[in-house]
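To whoever is on call:

I kicked off a structure prediction for a single chain this morning and the downstream step that reads the tokens threw a length-mismatch warning. I double-checked the sequence; it's 268 residues and nothing unusual in it as far as I can see. Pasting both halves so you can look.
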Amino acid sequence: MKRRRPPAASCKKPTRMDRLKDKVAFVTGSSRGIGAAIAALFVREGAKVALHGRDTQALSAVLAGIAQAGGQASYVMGDTTKFSDIEAMRRRIEREFGPVDILVANAGGSFTTPGPIEQTSEEEWRASIDGNLTATFLTIKSFLPRMKERGTGTIITISSAAARRPYAMAPIAYAAAKAGIEILTQDLAGQVGPYGIRANCIAPETILTERNKMRIPSTQQDDLIELHPIKRLGTPEDVAHAALYLASDDAAWIAGVVLDVAGGAVMV
């Protein structure tokens, strides 16, 4: 039996408005969707946030919304698969805001369509691995040394439910890249914990970003809802609140976890 979706207001959560006071955060891939929601929430909680993306118009819109709410943010542009670009972005952020306390390696995406693995081209495979796993690695590689020097920092990576369970129709290159991010994060947590740095990963399921709202027909959304014990699809704000928790001192003794934001659809 189909169930009606709860109203949007039921997805909203109260905030304390101070959990990230005076922190500097960098959120890659934050011109829209999950990254933009994380950046906006971090600003509301007192952080100074550096946005990132390649779409100047989209970044300007996110920045304008933050400024209108009285927050402090700026944006940088660059290719997260190129270490030189990331280093240039890091230096600019440090000049403007100071060293980064919270790094959210969110940039990525699926660059292949689901199908038999032998039909995946080498170019598609490399695009998915580089755009997700390599980008996450290079971003951490750039920002981690300063965190170690200061003896503090929080790193949050973004995986996907596609990496949490096997599914024959998944875009395999994307799933493999995201699975790589999970073990990278857990190995990293073991390495950096003694330096006062925490690393954790978030694995979202189907999230109704603006792009997905247009891409997934409403009838298919209803079918997807039925796969979740919590009978709705996720919102970017659901993921943002998970990121806020992991970034804040509320999670001060949590490291190396993969947090499923999946409405109960992933239980591992």
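Update from on-call: the warning came from a stale cache, not from the record. Cleared it. Sanity check on the structure: The beta strands are 24-27, 48-53, 73-77, 102-105, 153-158, 197-204, 258-261.
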